[in-house]
Amino acid sequence: MQEKLMTSTPAELVTPALLRGWRLSTEASGKKDRGTVMVIGGARRTPGAVMLTGLAGLRVGAGRLTMAVADSAAIAVAVAIPESGVVGLPEEDGGIDGGAAGPLLEADLSTAAAVVIGPGLDDAGQAAALLQSVVPLLGDKTQVVLDAFALGVLPGLPEVYDALAGRLVLTPNGAEILRLLEDADADEDSLDIPKASAEVARKYQAVVTPHNVISAPDGRSWEVPAGNSGLGTSGSGDVLAGAVGGFLARGATPEQAACWGTYLHAVSGDRLSASRGPLSFLARELLEAMPPVIAELN
Questions:
Q1: Angle at CA 230, nearest 5°, toward 224 and 236?
Q2: Lyase among the record's keywords (predicted)?
Q3: CA distance 132 to 107
Q4: How many CA atoms lie less than 13 Å away from 248 in the CB half-sphere?
């Protein structure tokens, strides 16, 4: 393994005291005051990813949820999550027709405080077309989380990340970090996550949160001293993206939302590891484990 390089700016630990200093208001006269989070993704075979993301957004306090999924899955998703509005999107071979999605979503995008794009997408070309059709319709203050396939295509879409500079959060894994850095020769096993995360943050002018490290474009960084290998399970990243999106919808800055969401995800995973077993808990159980952690921080 190659020797890892140290980052130039020491990371600040994300602790309960830090988060309490970043506490978001719990005063709201109605659901509109808590913000709307919109999740776009969910091919025919993978609508569950959008459901996990959307429910995480509600669990952390967003007031309203809208989910956009492949049309053939829309009714089932709407029945499964009655707290949500659901939009059916045109399909191509079971995946979302990205280029046709934007016009159908324009009204919903205009009211969303935060938009999460990517969970459950299954085609790179359609993911790129989706970003190109959706991002121009976003309001100037709408904050965005990109996950999964929506991350992988970002290097080829400078018009997208330039338009989202300063209001974008990326939630990559190690392989996706290498894709974002366009470094085909690098080895994921020897990747210096803090250094690479900082490079991605600068390149895309985004807050980046991989593997419990949070990096901001201005060089600031944070580290969550929690988490375990059990979080490497199907759907776990969708929950993380949804938690970040929910905090954004409530009015958090990108770095606040990333720190809150990453901490909540990691600590909830630790508690489930202790009660269920280190590799036995499911991503959906994170949704039930998160509210007690939030309650302790308020």
A1: 75
A2: yes
A3: 17
A4: 33
> Any idea how long the chain is?
298
Domains of the chain in start order, with CATH, are 12-182+190-297 (3.40.1190.20)
Residue 251: the pLDDT is: 94
| Widest CA span in the chain | 55
- Residue 63 marked as a ligand binder: no
- Is 147 among the annotated ligand-binding positions? no
Q: Is 28 annotated as a binding residue?
A: no
166 belongs to an annotated ligand binding site: no
Instruction: List average pLDDT for each run of 10 residues in the chain, which is 298 residues long.
Output: 44 96 79 91 96 98 96 97 96 93 92 96 96 95 96 96 97 93 78 94 97 96 96 97 97 97 98 96 98 94
DSSP the chain: -PPPPPPSSPPEE--HHHHHHTPPP---SSGGGG-EEEEE---TT-HHHHHHHHHHHHHTT-SEEEEEEEHHHHHHHHHH-TTSEEEEE-EETTEE-HHHHHHHHHHHHTT-SEEEE-TT---HHHHHHHHHHHGGGS-TT-EEEE-THHHHTGGG-HHHHHHTTTSEEE---HHHHHHHHT-TT--GGG--HHHHHHHHHHHHTSEE-STTEEE-TTS-EEE-----GGG-STTHHHHHHHHHHHHHHTT--HHHHHHHHHHHHHHHHHHHHHHH-TTT--HHHHHHHHHHHHHHH-
Residues 6+ apart with CB under 8 A from 100: 89, 90, 133
| pTM greater than 0.85 | yes
